[in-house]
Amino acid sequence: MTESSLVRRLAGVPRLFDALRWMLEGGYRGHHGVVARHLNNVGRVLDLGCGTGIYAPFFPPDSYVGADLSEAYIAAAQAKFPGHRFVVQDGTRTSFQEAEFDACMISGVLHHLDDSQAAQLLEEASRVVRPGGTIVVWEDIPSRWWNGVGHVIHRLDLGNHIRSPEGYRQLLQRHFTIVCSEHMRSGAMDYQVFQAKRPAAL
Q: Could you tell me the pTM of the whole model?
């Protein structure tokens, strides 16, 4: 069995994949900090590409919706957090109403998508977030030269479109006004975090 096929098998078992990520990323402490800093009391939130819903506990059940393309991951999320709402949706063309949410979060999704797909996802995020609303994106970036573990994880990762911070910035700027950006370390992994706003309606 190749390394990549092993990772695909692990990714197909949500509980095992969550446990592996939890160990490699220091209990998600870096991610939790992003949510606390940038998504505190923002209103109704869409977690686009929510996976197994690891961020759901940070939000009141009536203020959170998690959406993901994977039926297995949505089932796992709903089993863990039965009070929250999770739906199977293609993030590039959801069934949500225009301006339905006050904020959208996208974590670890864009590096699985090529530029065209990523642009479609961000365009959809812009549609479902109200004018003046918030989007917070944090994505894998190339590991620093001395981070050997990070380089190994990226080789095993199923995402083939890890970009530089500037690459993500260019994608976001097509639909949002970037408010701030920061580097975030989560265990052995490096991320770039962006907080942005959908331009207010004229």
A: 0.86
Q: What is the pLDDT of residues 64-88, one digit of tens each?
A: 999 999 999 999 999 999 999 999 9
φ, ψ for residue 117 (rounded to 5)? -65, -40
Tens digit of each residue's pLDDT (9 = 90 or more) over 146-170? 454 444 454 445 557 889 999 999 9
Task: Please tell me the distance from the alpha carbon of residue 84 to that of residue 1, in angstroms, as a whole number.
Answer: 37
Residue 39 and residue 105 in contact, taking contact as beta carbons nearer than 8 Å? yes
- Phi then psi for residue 131, to 5 deg, are -55, 130
> How many domains, in total, are found in the chain?
1
Closest CA to 26 of 191, 165, 201: 191
Full domain range(s) for residue 44 = 3-197
Residue 150: inside a domain: yes
CATH code assigned at 76: 3.40.50.150
The reply to whether 202 falls in a domain is: no
User: Which DSSP string corresponds to 13-61?
Assistant: SHHHHHHHHHHHTGGGHHHHHHHHHHSTT-SSEEEET-TTTTTGGGS-G
